[in-house]
Each structure stands twice: as C-alpha cells, then as structure tokens.
Write a structure and sequence with these properties.
Blueprint (H helix, E strand, L loop, with lengths): L1 E5 L2 E8 L2 E7 L6 H7 L5 H14 L3 H7 L5 H19 L6 E4 L16 H19 L7 E5 L11 H11 L4 H8 L3 H13 L3 E6 L13 H17 L3 H14 L4 H18 L11 E2 L3 H4 L6 H8 L7 H6 L5 H13 L3 E2 L1
Length: 347
Amino acid sequence: MLKFDRGKIVKQVYFDEGQIIGSHTNDPKEYLGQLLIHYGKLDEPQLRTALQIQRDSGGRLGEILVATKVLTEAEVGEILRIRTLDIIYDLFLWEEAHFELHDNAKPPAYFIRISVEPTKVIMDGAYRTDEWKRFRTLIPSDRAVLELQPGWKDSLEVSKELRQIFPFVEKHMSVAEISYNMHASPFHVYGQLYEMVKEGMAQVSGEVPETFSPVIDLVDLPDKLAGLLAGARTQLKEGDAESALSTIQGILEQQPKNSEARALLPVAEERLIKQLYTDPLLPDAVPKLLISADIISQQPLEPQEGFLLSRINDEWDIKSILSICPFREVDSLRMIKSLYDRRIIGF
C-alpha cells in the first residue's frame, strides 16, 4: 500500500502483483456519494436517504443502493472503478506530499477489487498534468467568475454536459462554487469551463475577493517549529482545539512532510468535532436562515459557506446537511459555527 499525506488529506493506493487493485481517500469530494451525484445516478435527497439507512444499519453505501434497487450492482461497480482512478489521477496534480510504502498492508475487509495496469495510469496522469496547465491559461484560479456570451444558452450546438454547467455560470458562481455544486472534481470543471471560454461561449469577468485568513508567520520555520508544536500540544491540553488545529494546519501548509504535525492533526480534529457538537449545534438540530437571500448575497462568504447555506431548507438537520457536503466534517462544523456566531443562521 502506497500512502500519501498532504495536510489533512490522506490517500492510499493498493497493489497486488504489480497491478493497482484499488484506492482509499479521506477527501469528501472523492467519496462514492459525491461521484454518484455528479454522474447523475443519484440526487442529493436520494443520497441523504441512503446515508440515513447506512447510519442505522452500518452497511456499505454501494450495497445499500443495490439492496434498495436504486442502482444495479454493475452501475455501482463502474462508479467505484471511476472513483478509484480519480483518486489516483488527482495525485498527479499534487506538487508536494509525504509518502510511505507499506509492503505487506492488506486492503480493508470491505474492499472491492479492480485491476488496472499502472503504466496506463501513469500515462493518463501525465496527460492530465499537461491538460491542467492548459486549462490554467484561460481559467486563472478557483476564484474566477465567468459570464455567458449572448445566444449560446439556446444554441442547439451545445452539448448536454455543457448545458448542465450554464445555470451555475449564470448565477456568477466562482469555479470553486461550481465544483461544489456539481459534486465534481476541479479537473472536470476546469475542462468544461476552458472549452466554454475557448469556443467563445463565455469569458472570465473577474474573480471573487480572496477572504482574509490569518496565516502563521513561519519564515524561520526550522527555528520556530519546536515552539509551534509545543504550543499546539499545550493548546490541546488546555482544551483549545480550535487554536491547536489552526497552528498545526499552518505548519503543514509550509511543511507538508512534518511527521509530528501530521500525527497531531487527527487528534486536534477529533477533539474540535466533539467540542463543536454542543448545544445548539447538535447532529439532530435543524438550522434555519435568519436573514433574507438578498442580505445573504451582500455578506462576505467563502464559496464553501455559500454551498452550505444553499442546503439549509428548514427540514434537514446538521448530520443530513453534512452527509451531502463535499467537505470534511470538521471544516463543515466550523463553517456552521461561524454562520451561527454571525447570526446568519439559527436553530
């Protein structure tokens, strides 16, 4: 098993006799449910229902969807194969990471095997790397916002796939927001938007402002590292998991391979999740919007916060909303807490 760590994201690729037999990820954007929505196999309410059954029964999502006759076994198997490859292909876009080889590691018991020739994956990954560079020549960043040119919306020449992206472009969503709402990988979305700009269907009209977030000064990291790590441990002992997590993430942004910071990261995340799940932010609590849509549009919101807010419908509780979000649990809870503190939502 080849394990890759980059900050809070961990990926594992499994091999047997030189063949790739599968992969695993803790990145919610690459979970099976997200891909099923992206490829039109499920909608968000169907995924929410299936995940509720999973929480009650403890079964695997794919098995539940087959047992409830939502999907066939062949459909689930094909999406699992696509998911495995997407997890691996994304690694080709990583510029830095920590990796470990575990020679005798066995896949989890629930693992569904595929068989892929590594040489083909390497060739496809290299192709994606070149494509990514090409996409960036017209779509400069995740904060880019596009504007449709007149006439293209009703054109018969536009493919069904491109038509699916038009509504998000019309709402002046950034590239990041479009990715979240389509439950798609950035590579896929960049490719679609690149074609739109190249064919004259749309143009980049600007970028959403970059939200300020404090960054720890780590210019002299080797000298400050011991003190920062000691500070994070002290913060954890004192019950300040929020500050500890920010410190650890700051270290990993500058030094992704730092083993001590990587070991502390899941500890800080677990403790912060427990702290955040306190009244009124309980798993069964149903959030409600406290301000109108017009006022929300004037708020300085992160793209992820906008996605979360759009899923608040006075019916879904926190655990249901989190189940269909392409974000890690701790990140989603921090956003919900921030929205609550700013009186944008209530319970």
